[in-house]
Sequence to fold (1030 residues):
Amino acid sequence: MESIWLNGTWTAAHALDTFRTMNPATGEALEGEYPVSSWQDCDLALNAAQHAFVALQKVAAEQRAAFLEAFARAIEARASELTETAHRETALPVRPRLADVELPRTTTQLRQAAQAARDGSWMQPVIDTKLNIRSCFAPIGPVVVFGPNNFPFAFNGVAGGDFAAAIAAGCPVIAKAHPLHPATSRLLAECARHATAVTGMPAAPLQMLYHLQPEDGLRLVADPRVGATAFTGSRAGGLALKRAADEAGRTIYLEMSSLNPIVFLPGALAERVDALVTETADSGLAAAGQFCTSPNLLFVVDGPHTDAFVQGLSSAYASRNPAPLLSHAGRDALHRSVQALTAAGATVRTGATPQSGSPGACYRNTVLQVSGAQFLAQAEALQKEAFGNVTTVVHCTDHAELLRALETLEGNLTASIYSAEDSADDALYHEVAARLRPRCGRLLNDKMPTGVALSPAMNHGGPYPSTGHAGFTAVGIPRSIQRFCALQCYDGVRQDRLPAALRDDAPARAAGPVA
Amino acid sequence: MESIWLNGTWTAAHALDTFRTMNPATGEALEGEYPVSSWQDCDLALNAAQHAFVALQKVAAEQRAAFLEAFARAIEARASELTETAHRETALPVRPRLADVELPRTTTQLRQAAQAARDGSWMQPVIDTKLNIRSCFAPIGPVVVFGPNNFPFAFNGVAGGDFAAAIAAGCPVIAKAHPLHPATSRLLAECARHATAVTGMPAAPLQMLYHLQPEDGLRLVADPRVGATAFTGSRAGGLALKRAADEAGRTIYLEMSSLNPIVFLPGALAERVDALVTETADSGLAAAGQFCTSPNLLFVVDGPHTDAFVQGLSSAYASRNPAPLLSHAGRDALHRSVQALTAAGATVRTGATPQSGSPGACYRNTVLQVSGAQFLAQAEALQKEAFGNVTTVVHCTDHAELLRALETLEGNLTASIYSAEDSADDALYHEVAARLRPRCGRLLNDKMPTGVALSPAMNHGGPYPSTGHAGFTAVGIPRSIQRFCALQCYDGVRQDRLPAALRDDAPARAAGPVA
Fold:
């Protein structure tokens, strides 16, 4: 049985059980047996993280930055091994996805976090020299990260965006690795171990558990030793953790389900229906539709090009080979979601069954269709997320029905509007945008939502239930760091007792607002 | 029966019941009968606020600012009437408290909010011109404000800090006025009506209800038409609302109970014990101890001046006349809290009974004392808030016991440390500060916590359970505005469709971070 990463060393778990993994592309069992940790392991991780938090407060920002950069280099040094391992565990292709996109994304995030740790802008110091009142953001304490199944590197609790943001602020991480890619997580933890050693970190900034029983997860996020929790995953899992954290008064950030609605306005379809079909299929089928921002819900209004769009999309989905999903269990869950959608009135244009004759976790690329009237009648049921290569087209009779349908949308991470290049769609655009804007975190024009750029202007967040708080983002440094901060004020505190960033001679002082 | 303020007009309530008020200084009934609103009134207020939210989005920031300033002027124009009315309802003195401190504080907040609305810094625009990704904070929707009993102007849902911050962001307010000062709230709403009219606001930015049944309050904060709720009041009330809001995925900010611990280090007592006694009594008995930041819990270590401090404080409390509390019910609740504290092991140094022979809601100024060992044994019970003129001294045997006791503290709004002017206390200071810092929002040196300056550097917030989220403050513009914001991103959106603050020609563009 593999060891867990605790207190700077590989440690035998107090396991309640063990689990093994399977290559989702082949159905073959993979090597390695991993522990399902007991609460005792959580308790040890919490104590270690609490100790590390105290130690990290005494570490200069420069050393945290050096650690993050050393971690990035360590990942690059083992890139082949990492991408091969992740490929076996997830079936995501080594190239371009893992080696050319996700691994560089991960190291970029670590380096951006290093830069943020160094420049300290996330602290947002405000100094009132007249009253000698000063405040800034400070690390909130140990951060628990629940990583998702769909990004073995970039959202992994051990090395991904949440990890990078927490460390940038000075918060140690307790990672609950995703049980679909434990070998990848183990390798990443090894890279973190190496980076900790070469940069002389005083205590392990990372603890890693492979798997937990659900009740121990709930207990973990409610524990008073935890500063905050970041979760990326399903709505059901996220809401259960939210309830436990809320009840205990603990801070939790959730990145849950999102359908990422796209509205195709008539002028756009008239102008470039074939291009839009291709663009939608490319985005909707990328990674077999297993992105948080995959376009799962498309809105069109009856018109001369509407049937061509729906027919074209169905043909495109039918003609492409489905990529394997991340697990056989995920394929089965996807099928149950499709059945729920058809039970709610959606009709099948193509797909809607597992891919026969494949040992892999493949599901046929699926396009469902529903009328605007039916969507309005079953708005909640038809917003059930189907995580995978499934897209539902809502075919509205007219503009009024479209607008009413948009008003039933739950909170989403993204929403997109495609409109004519000229002003043909402008009037309708504004009506549509007014309805989508409060219901999403990122509003796009003529662009698919599946690229989540590592930009300081990015918002990978949105209204509930896409997340738990519309004021925060999980991607985009430095803003993503704010999740792991407490606001701390110093009133009448003597100069030599202030944090460096709040002293009269602080380098950042000139930059921050001064009253 | 008085009318409620709905949709820009005084409207007859759908009342389930009515209530009357009493002058807490005299016990005399005051004029006026006020409605306890039914859900129907809440529903009307929600619809009106939703309508106002849409209308407010089309209003220039300058007009919002003008409204806030006109509101401040309207309050000043009726200052005598307001302070006399509030005095009758709360027993707080007209001068200096109401006329010279709280009313100017209220108008200053409104004007600071106006300035923030105008300069737009709260939007924090970030523009990535290379990728054409832009984001900023935007108003989250209608804001419900539950005002507390202890600040009839400055924290009133109708005119106080939460109101000002919400309007600055462009969020209309539904105020649940506090039932201990309905006539004051009515007058403030009249001032808001006047300001709405003279500045030509398109829809009423304020709805006001006087009172609700508890179950309707829970339903209100969970309603999907609400963007966020701000609550200031008791822990029990706040936690009930939090549960309802959390369960529905609605955003809520709470400013609940806080004991505001003060640690007097030995060197400070040696240097200036008499001055510290006076300073503590002045702060602890100000407004009969009914501030969110009143010092309710004092820590001292056994030493040559400790008894002098405790004895001096007891004498000072005993010798001063108790001011009336805000209500007779509050006096009774205070007495129950004192009984709970003594049941948990605190001994009475002075007070601990209602003031006899007074028609007013007076309670004898009370000093309780408990040993460090007893505090450690009953840490939770001895942290029960006693809202009023009651202070508990924890007398620790030595430094180690003091530090252990501090480690049991719940989250507080403030924590203060008094130390010697020279370096005599420095070593202990750092040990104490390390324990207090993560347990409070504002850390003070040699200063009582009861002044909450209107500074952009202020943090009137803190770790749970003093608030519901340690990342936000209820006082200090512009930061307090962030509570009522959603992060909104625009990706690939055409220039003419962007909010003004995110366009290439935005005046703020030069100031915001640009990637």
